[in-house]
Amino acid sequence: MTDSLPIQWFLNREQHQPDALFLRQPINRKWKTWTYRQAGKEIRCVAAALAELPLRSNVAILSKNCAHWIMADLAIMMAGHVSVPIYPTLGDDAIRSILEHSQAAGIIIGKLDNYQSQRGGIPDSVMRISIAAYGIQEGICWEKLTAEGKAISQPVKQQYNDLMTIIYTSGTTGKPKGVMHTAGNFAEVIREVDVALPQLSDQPRMFSYLPLSHIAERVGIEMLSLYKGAMISFAETIDTFAEDLKDTQPAVFFAVPRIWSKIQEKILSRIEQKKLNILLAIPGLNALIRKKLKKELGLSRAIYVCSGAAPLSTDIMLWFKRLGITIHQDYGMTEDCVLSHFNLIGRNKWGSVGRPLPGAETRISDEGEVRIRSKALMKGYYKEPELTALAFDEAGFLRTGDMGRYDEEGYLFITGRLKDQFKTDKGKYISPGPIEMMLLRHSDIEQVCVVGMGVPQPMALVVLSAAGKAKSKDEIAANLGAAIASVNGQLEAYEQLKTAVVMREDWTIENGLLTPTLKVRRNEVEKIYLPHYSKWYHQQGTVVWA
Fold it and tell me: Measuring CA to CA, how many Å separate 313 from each of 281, 318, 433, 469?
């Protein structure tokens, strides 16, 4: 079994294609590259330092996506340890909480925006390895380790059931929990994905920018790349993202809904929708327009383009389809290692999250909850046996917390979250997800959270998009009023929205109202705004201003 596990995937490539490019990292707008051989040398040297820790120690990675993140993960595996990825946007208190809960013995510190504000979260007892290339000099220097060339004599052999990583959830509904996954879990999901995507050739180009601390990027970029012998490129900054993606032209591109909205917004800022419609309607010219746009976006060689983490509007998917870009909406979670549901090439149904991969067994509970069972399910929450027991039903199916339904062809449609349901003063339960999806079709809305505890009817808390912010208050009020009327026409009377409340500030990762994967932290939003619901509800007008 060990020849089909993550560390062996790398070792095989290192042996059989040592001079193939493995990693490309932009630093000060110049690409630094590593072949499999060069990366292997650095990985072994760092692993030798980590081998000083007791076997099976937990070792954290605190870094934005970069070449060193991948090498750090492989070094931790080679030394026989367990990786604990930490989101690079977390503050010192959250970092300390994860390090203490995971009992991390070491940490590798890489590319960060403001390490000085985070360093206080690392206990003095934790061994530090830092990367000078990103301006951080703490504890042992990565560059010094790799220059000295003291490599690990014999990498620890990875076993199928070895705990490989503890991934702390991004915490949309409460305190983050440490999800435990084995090497075998990743092997299972990658084998399924490889069979599901036969169009993806060996040694593809890949692009990594969504947090590697998140299960989707970890599986879809890092693990799939190791398995396929890929070349992985990274974005240097948010400002250079478009340029770096265009330079890479990856075979696979994964984004979350907010990024698709931003890409659409960027295109429409350069060419008006009416003009775009005219150009796309002209035979011959439309093909040239699509080809040029795809190349500018960095998607000219994309074989599989997908969206996940949150529902994506069918309107946006159809809009991109007109540009020749087919978005496949997929569904998975940290606890199931994303061995779940995929829309595949040639088998893509708008609005659904696809059909189960062959290795996934699923069912809908009496409460309407999607449940899943596979060989890749988590081994539990770290040091949380009671929470672990609650996560599974009596037959060993994972309780996803998502409500859904299957159509006659076996495609899954997510209809909401069990925990997101709330009761209005009228005693009626509301599922906010579907209502939010309808509102997000409106181009003036960037983010929305439908709420209603303590008032008779639901309300929509709205963050305006860039297009919305460019308009006058009267225009916004008219547009949002029309959107509310349109949505209400599709809802039952008790679900209909009374008011749209326009927020004064954006919801961001920095202010704690978005997760690192850009999902709204409903609990945090409600914690801040719940005291104002009654006042907003009783203000006159369909649109009010916070």
Answer: 23, 9, 12, 21
